[in-house]
Structure formats: structure tokens, C-alpha cells
Amino acid sequence: MRATSEITTAGGTALVVDSDIDLLNQIAGGLRSAGFTVAAHSTVSPAIDAARELTADVAVVGADIALEYLATIAKEADHLLPRNIPVVLTAKSAEQVTSHPELAMRSSDYLLLPIASEELLHRVNTAIHRNRLREERRNESAFLRDRVRRISDDIRQTNEPADMVELALQGIGEALGAEDVTLHTFDDARVSYGGARWQRGVGSAQPNDVSELLDELWVLGTELWRTSGSLAVIAGQLTEVPETMPRIHARMEGFDSSGLLLPIGEGATPFGVVWIVADRGARKWSGAEIALLQHLLGNLAHGMIQGQLIVGQQQVVDRLRELDAAKNGFVATVHHELRTPLSSILGYVELLQDGDGGDLPAPAGKMLEIIERNGQRLSSLVENVLALSVLDAGTELGDASIDLVHLLETVTADLLPLATRKNVSIQVLPTDQALYVSGMWALLERAFVNVLSNAVKFSPDGGKVTVSLATENGAVQVTVEDAGMGIPADELPQLLTRFYRATNSVAAEIPGTGLGLSIAAEAVERHGGSLVIQSELGEGTTVVIELPRS
Fold it and tell me: Start and end of every Histidine kinase domain (predicted)?
């Protein structure tokens, strides 16, 4: 604020209200002589009307009439003593004003009678000047509040800490008319951002090297954070900088602008400080400015920490996707590399068993059976691993038309060697309908192979597996029934979980991986269908697969 000697006659419009006609004329005349447009009234009613209609720069009101007015029409007091218009009271004594708190609160200043013209003009102009300063500060605070809201909204629109910092520093600089806004960060696991700087006319830039100051800045920032405070340097005066920080003192020698240091952090400790430099002369940083900046830095700190977590998580997700893609590629390669030699091995085993290589002794025949059996197990495992890869990768299934009867005949033929060894028969009940579904042949084939091979594997010697087909409500139902050992009732809900095996199958030492039914269920569900298992211990198991009919 300027010194009293610098306050000159402002002129403008004045409202004068006093029941003492001589005093009223004296005040009104003095103000008119000084260049004011004056509306003068000696009674309350016209003064109220004038206050409602007139946009005055100042009001000079007699304390007697003000007290009378406040006592009789207190609810409408603002019409005579508007809160946005400075009011100078004329009083017989100081006690006349100070003994009435409401009157003192609603006035800007008061004059004691008798009134000297120079004193009147000085008090009136001082009141106008102060009121204009207050209005400027209010407008600045409203502007800064709006900018803080906008900057906070912009920060919330991104997950990148670097973008958040750039938006915040530029926004602070432009809102305050600052020359320089710099963020210095400490060594803190919550943020990995190394600091940033915004300069008027330059934009984003690298911050100055303050590595030798970081220890002192950390101590200072921590203390400011603990006290929810800030440090202001006005026109190079370093009185607020503690003497225990000689390096900061040395760095700031000759600093002739106005600076404000604020801590930034979250929780118990800060992770940095923000330094704002502005050419403000002797003007101090207002409490409203500091509070709004602290609020904005709180939003920035929260955004930076959350943004770093989100970016880190996204990097992990991206890496996992890369690994998953590599895994799928590896599985496909392994599948190809295993399937080809396995097919060759099983083919030659079959030729040997058929006698194409000449007569074999009985022990050799037994050995070939073992090779063939384990080769088939390995082949099934390889196909299951490939099916898992397809399911986990979310591969598009396509819309190929699949003849379900033909598919089941193919699966039954493939399982015939297994059924023969187990002395189990597979019967597919005939149907006179053409039953088609849409999807991926290989995946549905694997689903039915797993269900039917389980039925054969768990059937007793001489048992029978029955496959029947039916249509219902636009869907095809495939029912696979066996008379095997069954499944404990309390284990049925877990049976479709990957790698889960029923306890009775483990106890009976029946080989398996616990993948077959889970793969079958997932494959069927991917085709828009369902797989339901019904079983009774010791009586057998029924699997019902339902698929949309195409």
C-alpha cells in the first residue's frame, strides 16, 4: 500500500448523510470543491433511496443518524452502509463509534468534530484508496481461484507426471504474472520426476542446478510442511531465511524481486519445493494467494504420486503383454516342434505293430504298446497346451460352419485305440438331423476329445460310453455318459478349475494333469455355450455340452 503522502484527491461520487444541516452543507461543499459529485440528505428515507440508486465511491455519514438508522431498520442496514462502499463516520467522540461494534464494523474510518477540510479530504481519499486496493485483491483472488480450479481440472485429465508439472507451473506463472516458477524435488521413492522450470517468454526449461542446496532445501521444506507455512522474500530481504542455511543465503545475495517458497508433498513429508519469482515491488503475498497455491500444489502432489503409480502399472501391464505374446509364440513353436516328431514316432510305432517291419518278439510288442500309450499321452498334453494358449490369447474363433456329427465321429475314431486298450466301447447314437455350429474346429475338437477321453479313462474294464445329440431352443445338446467311478459331490464345483483333480482319481493313480475339463469348459463358453457335469460317486458321470446351433 502507498504511503499517506502519495494518496491524492480521487474525485468521484460521494453520498453525504447528516441530520445537522450546517455540518451536512460543510461536508458536501468541501467534497464538491475537491471535484466530487455529491448527493446530500439530512433524513433517512431519501438517503435510503439514494443508497439504493446511487453507485457511490464513498459515503460520509453522521454517527447520530447512522445509529438511529441501525437501531430502527437493522435488516436493511446495507442500503445505507453498503459493504462494498467505504463509509467515513463523523462523530462527536471516539466512544460514539467504538462503543457500538456493529457501527464500527460497518465503517472504514471516522472523523471527530469539528472537521477540518484537509482532514476530511484525506480521510475520504484514504478510504477510497483502501477500498480500491481491497477490490483489486478480491478480484485477484477470484481470478486466481478460477485459475487454480482450471489447472486442477487439467491435471486430472492426464496420468503423466511430467504433463501435470508443466501444466501446473505454467498455470501458476500466468495466473500470478510471475517471471519464474521452478519445482525442485528431493530423493523420494514416491516420485521419480527430477524437477522442472517455467520462465516467462521462454516456457518450459531445465531448472538451475541446486544440488549443493538440496540438504538445506530439504530441511527448510520439511519445516514449512510441518507448519503448513511458506517463505516469502520481499525485494531481496532475506530476513525470513533462517541463518542456519548459509548456502541459500549466499545463492540469494543480490536477489531483488519477490519470491515465494512453498513445500509440495503428501502425507507426513514433502517431496520437493516450488519457488515462484515475481516482480511485485514491496507488495506482500496475500494469505488468499498462499492458501490457493497450497491447495493447487496439494492437487499436483496427489496427481504426481497417483500418476507415477498408474504409469508404472501400465509399464508392468505392457511388459506382461509382451511376455504373454512371447509365451504364446513360444507355445506355438513348441507345439509345432513337438507335434511333428510325435506324429512320426506314433506313425512308426503303428507300422511296427502292424508287422511292416517284420515279426517282433512278444517283449518288443509290449514295449511298443508302452511307447504308443505314452506317446498318445504326450500328444494329448501338447494339444492341451496349445488349446490353453489359444484361449488365453483371446484368439478370434471365426465363424466357420462345423458339422457336429462329423466332428464327433472324428473324435470317436481318434479315441478308438485308447478305448480298445481299456476294453471300453464308445457308442454315438444316430441322428437324422444335420447339426451345425459356428466357431473353431480345432478348439471344439479338443473340448470333445477331453470329455470323451475322460469318460473312457474313468470307465471300468468292459464299460460303455454313450454319446447322444438333441436340439432344444435353437441349441444343440451333446450328452456324454459313462458308468465309471464318479466324482465326490463336494468336489464338483471345483472340477472345472485348471489343474484340479478329483481326490478319488488321484488315489486310484489314474494319470492326468487336471486341464482337460477346464479347457473343454472354456472352449465351449468361448463358443457361447455351456458345459454341465452331473455325477454320483460309484455310479458314473454325465457331461452335457450345449452349443448355439448355426
Answer: 333-550
Nearest to 483 by CA among 464, 506, 508: 464
**Contact assessment for residue 89 and residue 107, using Cβ atoms and an 8 Å cutoff:** yes
Whether residue 114 has a cis bond before it, omega within 30° of 0 = yes
| Contacts with 62 (C-beta within 8 Å, 6 or more apart), sequence order | 17, 18, 19, 20, 23, 24, 89, 90, 91
Cell of 15: 453520498
Q: How does DSSP assign 287-353, residue by residue?
A: HHHHHHHHHHHHHHHHHHHHHHHHHHHHHHHHHHHHHHHHHHHHHHHHHHHHHHHHHHHHHHHHHHH
- Give the CA count within 13 Å in the CB-facing half-sphere of 406: 8
> What is the mean pLDDT for each group of 10 consecutive residues in the chain (550 residues)?
41 87 92 90 79 79 80 44 74 87 80 90 89 80 86 91 93 91 92 89 89 92 93 75 83 83 94 91 81 93 90 85 78 72 81 82 85 81 77 79 93 90 91 90 92 92 93 92 91 87 82 85 93 92 93
C-alpha torsion angle, residues 290, 291, 293, 298 (rounded to 10): 140
What's the pTM? Answer: 0.53
Which phi and psi angles does 479 have, rounded to 5°? -110, 125
